Amino acid sequence: MVLPYFSPGWFFGYDVTLELIFAVVLLLVVLFTHRVYKTTSQRSVQIFGIGITFMAAGYVIQSIFNFLTIHELNNNLTFLSKAQYYLIYQFFGTYSHILLMNVGLILILYMTFRIEDYKILAILLATSLISIFLSESPFYLFTLLATIYLIFISWYFIKNYMRNRNKKTLLVAIAFSFLLLANAHFVFSTNYPVFYALGHAIELVAYIFILWNFYLVRTYDKKKGKA
Amino acid sequence: MIRKRERLEIIHDILVAIKDKKETKPTHVLYKSNLSHQMLTEYINDLIKKEFIEEKLSKDGKKTYSLKQRGFDYLKDYESIKSFMESYGLDE
What we know:
The complex is a heterodimer. Chain A has 7 helices and no strands. Chain A is mainly α. The longest helix of chain A is centred in the middle third of the chain and has 35 residues, at 79-113. Chain A is globular, with a radius of gyration of 18 Å. The A-B interface holds A 32-33, 35-36, 39-42, 44-45, 48, 111-112, 114, 156-157, 159-160, 163-164, 166, 168-169, 171-172, 213, 216-218, 220, 222, 227 and B 7-8, 11, 50, 74, 77, 79-81, 83-90, 92.
């Protein structure tokens, strides 16, 4: 079983910072989603909020363990000690990140289905988590599955834009399309570390769009036709 | 084809109807919200439970409604909330 840390050497540390930024952006959205849910009590809002909470947690975990890995690798330790720390941090970091991100994406995917049956959610979670954790290459399988989920999620937001054509819906549709593109890059990062860096860069673009949308929503002008 | 109002919009219409006066009679809310009596009763009970509005008895013993702070906050944030829900397709 390969435990990955795919970052090319020149990208060490940048991934930690970027993942924290992604988590902060998502947390802003989470806080507002919670407020919206308290007001509307709408199930779709609740599921969406929980989904992005899990994604934010996934980024935080990934950032922490990547930081710890780099920190230990830079320490003046013997090679054996470094290898031990590397394995421990990457084991916990990778599996925690996969678990949290997978649950988050599946919850958002489930929200897009607009069905009331929790059995579908249970099946999606069970089949994906079991297959990932029993796989020889869990990270590779996770990125493949996440890409598939994001195809459906992106399509949902693109249809939402076609239904409500305005700047805000367009920003969200573009953001999730970029997340799909980023994840597609991570699929190749197991063999080509440069894709790990590229994936993060594309994710940054996606989260800039999400932040931009959040800004427009929060500063929504009460005059009709604006934003 | 008449567009079906979303729950968010219905709550907004009810609260705006109640906000107009200090003590609003149910018939006024019924007229302004354009809901059936049964639907309005359900929404009103939900809004009272969530402390958006409160029910009082007027001097002549009739039921009236007035907006509470959460109701005012809802109206203030309505456009942001609606905009957010529309962005993420949560308003379907």
